[in-house]
Amino acid sequence: MGEVDPAFIQEPEHRARISYIEGEGIPVIDLSPLHSPNDVSAFEGLVKEIGNACKDWGFFQVINHGVPLEKRQKIEKTSKRFFAQSLEEKRKVKKTEKLVLGYYDSEYTKNVRDWKEVFDFIIEEPTLFPNSHEPANDKELAGWTNLWPEYPPEFRETCQEYIQEMEKLAFKLMELVALSLGLPADRFHGFFKDQVSYVRLNYYPICPFPHLALGLGRHKDSGAVTILGEDGVPGLEVKRRKNGEWVRVKHIPDAYIINIGDNIKVWSNDEYESVEHRVMVNSEKERYSYPFFLLPALSTVVEPLEELTNEQNPAKYRAYNWGEFISNRNQSNYQKQKVENLQISDFKISE
Prior knowledge:
The protein has helices at residues 40-56, 69-83, 87-90, 155-180, 262-267, 322-331, and strands at 21-22, 28-30, 59-63, 102-104, 108-109, 112-113, 117-122, 127-130, 141-144, 198-204, 216-219, 225-230, 236-239, 246-248, 256-260, 277-279, 287-294, 301-302, 320-321. The chain is an alpha+beta fold. An eight-stranded mixed β-sheet has the order 2-3-15-12-17-10-7-4. The longest helix is centred in the middle third of the chain and has 26 residues, at 155-180.
């Protein structure tokens, strides 16, 4: 990425520390009871663990999740082969403000450029989604079509196989979240017809000024849940709810890191929390990760669930259209804005 560019430099209060706190206490949850449905006690214990993790941390790790190890190894190997190419080759599948999928190397978070390269691909394509719940709103149609590179030759097949595994795991997690809230297991399923869920391949190159830049700036995920696989090079940090400290997520081989997004924060009426997280850069090692973002249909109206609100616990958020929200957020990825992009807090109802 060349010499230090002021666009990468974080404000002093958001820069990385030389030392860090490792995230002792971040829950590690064994999903084995999902594969033994007759063990009612173990399954009920699992549901309770999920609920506690969503309340206390908004982050947790899962083991015995059912995703074949070879699928994970294959996506990592293929990702490394793609990013090892020249910029000229990678930019043949470059995404733009109108083509929202593909390769990109100059993304912004909170108006500061991230030290990373990415490649995005969606679960369902090619298709056309309305960015509004209004049926006649033809002027806000957005095309979400995958741009597949010619190299590596196995890239498309590998990506498609992997995202199917992520979808299966995501829906299992959403069912557990629903049950932990006292809802039917399939309560959230209807929001994901015509979903815009996607996988992002992340490449964080070696950075000569890790004290100034971040691989990914502080943010909360705006969707439902995120499932993160990583290569073992440390970097992900989570801001603890109770004291605001940044803690480093400990790598557990073959585990997936899960975090709750703003959709669930709103649907649960603040019963569950989405929390800020960020990615450190490294002056000695490259880092690769491959998160899956479970996102509802763009026409979805997101608001607190009726079952979880009453006179004693009224809705804490105004309803918002997911397509319009995500469109606004995407615009700030491509250039520095004069103001911070739209946040979920903008829809909070004043007490």
